[in-house]
Amino acid sequence: MATDVSNVAIRLAQAIAAGQRRALAQCCSLAESIRDDDQELLSAVLAELPAPARHTRRVAVTGAPGVGKSSFVERWGTSLINAGHSVAVLAIDPSSRRTGGSILGDKTRMQVLANSSHAFVRPQPSGTHLGGTARATRLCIPLCEAAGYDTIIVETVGVGQSEVEVADMVDLCLLLVLPTAGDDVQAIKRGIMEVADVVAVTKSDLDPEASRRAAAMLSGAMRLLQPSSEEWTSRVVLASAVDQDGLTEVDQSVADYFSDVRHDMVMRRRRRQQVRWYDDEVVAMMRLALLANSKVSQTVGEMREAIVAGRLTVPHASSAVVKVIQDVLKQGN
Amino acid sequence: MATDVSNVAIRLAQAIAAGQRRALAQCCSLAESIRDDDQELLSAVLAELPAPARHTRRVAVTGAPGVGKSSFVERWGTSLINAGHSVAVLAIDPSSRRTGGSILGDKTRMQVLANSSHAFVRPQPSGTHLGGTARATRLCIPLCEAAGYDTIIVETVGVGQSEVEVADMVDLCLLLVLPTAGDDVQAIKRGIMEVADVVAVTKSDLDPEASRRAAAMLSGAMRLLQPSSEEWTSRVVLASAVDQDGLTEVDQSVADYFSDVRHDMVMRRRRRQQVRWYDDEVVAMMRLALLANSKVSQTVGEMREAIVAGRLTVPHASSAVVKVIQDVLKQGN
What pLDDT is attached to residue A219? Predict the structure, then answer.
């Protein structure tokens, strides 16, 4: 690596560890960039970061659009700060866009948190490229932790493919569900119920009876979908919309999850996530590297068209691709 | 392709199309082989096979161990044959093993079906290598269809990672659920509820009240987990263990699913499955081809160890892998 990159990285890492928000924001921008030099610099910064001084907590807040994720994060984050925590919010925001290096959310959200000196709110642009948001969020988490934030809240957008991916980068996945009229609840995105550690029925004060029915139904579904675990049994709790007391059950569940007796469980989970991330990265990079070869990409595309048109069977088409890959590997580009 | 391979493939394809069970079994063995020459021959056979004379139906029967999948398949398959169908059963059997080219199931199962001239029962050995069983099953389906079997039943083993993969190679996924004591049901494997098209509560005659409660609970969970579709709304039905009448609701649901008005839906689903299979194959082959290079595989392994040990961050480790891949692609093996 060039010496100047290394020096810049060391300075940035020191500034982040000293709690300089400007350096933190600058490195979050690197994480959101698809430029190779930005990624290289960030990689060097991450290698220089000190380990966080305290145990950190990584929590995803997910749920369908309209369930009130942002207002929940605003209220919950504020209560955490009042209890002495420092909170970073990485909010995956489809309406935010990148303008000349800075990111502007279309909605003005989380005013209280955004103005607190103990909080760092970062909208993450979504939809730039496949998997790009998840990758950026994953990279921002250790940056925020090194900057001294002990609770990292990742707020998902509630649509698209990102929810399950986000669950694999946090310690605890909190699913918000809104009871609709009757005892039904909104349809829940595929795969989320299986990975939720805590389910909170929101706005439970509006119709307590419907909320209790929804909670019972969700408890049943969770028992069906999640294998029992010695480490943690997922819970369904009620969360009120209007008063701070509505957070008591959520707070209690989160505190139980992150209790000292479960610290090893959280660390094992993080290690497994790192290995899965690495394995996925390796396969994705192999694909990109080979598709960068024009012979490979042309054959892959032509064979795919033949499959779509029903002209070739998959074994035939894929063996043609194998031959081209082996030729390219033998001869070099 | 060598001329002799081509000639052998044409003869095998003709024999299968003429309904010769020996040729069908021989090609199923090719599908279960990991030898390159076997796969090449099979690929040539598949290219020579005529399209099935009738519309075919591909149904997965899945559910937890002990739910009675085999006895259900035996009874249902027999009733289908009595109604004029020809049935092929591809049973993924963890207890079967390969002995000198033939496959012996440890359990003697499906005696009635196995002895019928209108049925073909093929245990598929599982656990040979990752993804191998699913691949073999996928390749056997068109072989059975070309041999004149109009209903292909894939019976899964109920444990391991194969269930969701199997659901992606059939038209209809039938999930069997056994109500346990009380109104609870057995825990259901991750991801299966989302892909089930029909859920049958088995042995519903033993405790009708518990079965009805389980069915109501399952219906609720399905509404939560599956987005509504104009094409097909998943159903929960009751299936009795002791009398043929217990199959009526299952038969009715399957017949509705495969009604002429839905034929286009089934064909679209198959086309999507082929494209997904191709895309997955391409990525898997790219990975294998690159890992066959010793420099690549060594770096991938070393970097993975560094991740497991917590010595490197994922961006650092994966950028080291990228550099080696690009070197290999530039210079050739």
Answer: 87
- Which CATH architecture describes the domain B51-261? 3-Layer(aba) Sandwich (3.40)
DSSP B159: S
Positions of CATH 3.40.50.300 in chain A = 51-261
Choose between B240 and A242: higher pLDDT: B240
Smallest CA–CA distance, residue B333 to chain A, in Å, is 5
Interatomic CA distance for residues B127 and B125, integer angstroms: 7
The closest alpha carbon to A165, from A124, A201, A200, belongs to A124
For A179, the closest chain B residue by CA position comes to: B224
Given the DSSP bridges, would you call strands A235-238 and B102-104 parallel, antiparallel or unpaired?
unpaired
Residue A11: predicted pLDDT: 96
pLDDT tens track for A288-312 = 999 999 999 999 999 999 999 989 9
The residue to which tokens 């991330």 are assigned: A277
Asked if residue A191 lies in contact with residue A164, where contact means CB atoms within 8 angstroms, the answer is yes
- Whether ipTM > 0.90 holds is no
DSSP letter string over A39-55? HHHHHHHHHHPPPPSS-
User: pLDDT per residue over A40-90, tens digit each?
Assistant: 999 999 999 988 888 999 999 998 888 888 889 998 999 999 999 999 999
CA distance A276 to A298: 30
Burial class of A113 by CB neighbour count within 10 A (0 to 12, 13 to 18, 19+)? buried
Q: Supply A325's token pair.
A: 């890959």
Which of A293, A271, A67 lies closest to B289, judged by CA?
A293
pLDDT, tens digit, for every residue of B236-280? 998 876 666 678 889 999 999 999 889 999 999 999 999 999 999
Give, for B99, the enclosing helix (H) or strand (E): strand B97-99
Q: Of A56, A77, A199, A59, which Cα lies nearest the Cα of A137?
A: A59
Within the 168-207 window of chain B, which residues sit less than 8 Å (CB to CB) from chain A?
Answer: 184-185, 187-188, 190-191, 193-194
Q: Alpha-carbon distance B253 to A283, whole Å?
A: 41
| DSSP state for residue A52 in the 8-state scheme | P
Mutate to test the interface with B, among A36, A42, A233, A281 (most CBs of B within 10 A): A281
